[in-house]
Specification:
The chain has a single domain, classed as Thiol Ester Dehydrase, Chain A (Roll), CATH 3.10.129. About 25% of the residues lie in helices and about 20% in strands. The chain has a five-stranded mixed sheet with strand order 1-2-3-4-5. A hairpin with a 2-residue loop joins β4 and β5. By secondary structure, it is an alpha+beta fold.
Length: about 180
């Protein structure tokens, strides 16, 4: 399957219910009170209980693996968390291929949480790089925001505003 300018990552919208953080705490073992105790969260300056970052990351992973043809397409994953999300506030994950030049797909991403205290986006760079570079004619991926290249973290913590390849994320996760 080839990638072309204008291709969109299928939008994913999820609204976590008010009990999600309690269920996720039980499943993950993360019982930090900022996720499960409304009063405690407010006492430490939060607007209320906040979503687990890994749950939010899973929604981004879900959208990107759906775009890549299923969970088998996820080989490595790296995200950057900025801000926080709240139960009962919609999470929307979107992305668009802006151009493909010399085998490099330039992708603009966003995952805003409407009505929440999120100050920016949750980004799953490695996932897109590894998914898109498996497609015909794509050897690298470059990310932009408002048409300008953005610095994207590699697995080693360094930043790059140039084309990235799967090798930039080697060792983050293994394939099943």
């Amino acid at each position: 399957m080839s990638v072309q300018s204008g291709d969109e990552i299928p939008e994913l919208k999820v609204t976590p219910d008010k009990y999600l953080t309690v269920r996720y705490a039980g499943a993950s073992g993360d019982f930090n009170p900022i996720h499960i105790d409304e009063d405690f969260a407010k006492q430490v300056g939060l607007p209320g209980r906040i979503l687990h970052g890994l749950w939010t990351m899973a929604q981004v992973a879900r959208a990107q693996t759906d775009a890549g043809g299923g969970p088998h397409s996820l080989r490595r994953l790296q995200v950057q968390f900025r801000g926080m999300g709240l139960p009962e506030h919609e999470v929307t994950v979107t992305g668009t291929v802006h151009e493909v030049r010399d085998g490099v797909a330039v992708v603009g991403l966003s995952a805003p949480i409407e009505g929440s205290v999120r100050t920016d986006e949750v980004l799953a760079y490695a996932q897109l790089v590894c998914t898109l570079t498996k497609r015909s004619g794509v050897t690298g991926v470059e990310f932009t925001r408002d048409g300008r290249p953005i610095a994207v973290p590699r697995a080693d913590g360094s930043l790059s505003d140039g084309p990235l390849t799967a090798a930039d994320y080697a060792g983050l996760a293994t394939t099943r």
